[in-house]
Amino acid sequence: MLSIRFVRRGRRNQAHFRIVVVEKRKDPWGDFLEDLGFYNPRTKDCNLKKERILYWISQGAQPTGSVHNLLVNKGVIKGPKVKVTKVHKSKQEQEQKQELKQESEQKQEQEQEQQEPIQDIKEENEQKQEDNQIEQK
What we know:
The chain has helices at 50-58, 65-74, 89-136; strands at residues 2-11, 14-23, 34-40, 45-48, 62-63. By secondary structure, the protein is of the alpha+beta class. The chain folds into two domains: 2-74, CATH 3.30.1320.10; 87-131. A hairpin with a 2-residue loop joins strand 1 and strand 2.
């Protein structure tokens, strides 16, 4: 599967990026199929080959999240931006535990709400029986 991704270039603390087409599982610093432009985040300078980017997307190349957002900003492709940040597994597990806890609390509340009318009915029936016993005496 083909991927359109950034390849980091430049000196330490002065990064700029090439935008290239490469096999998804291949090393991004190795051989790439085509250079599609560059992006310098420090100066916001960007040069994109729009026709070639659209060609590779039509051939099935998937842009990474960051490249997709850059292409949307520059108007090469249309659509919403993609959320790029990753959530650590420990945070995901914590969120899942919280969701499960909330669901269980909601279920308990629903069960209690269902049991309350039943208890009220039982109490009323007991009172009626006591009243009936008193009347019979």
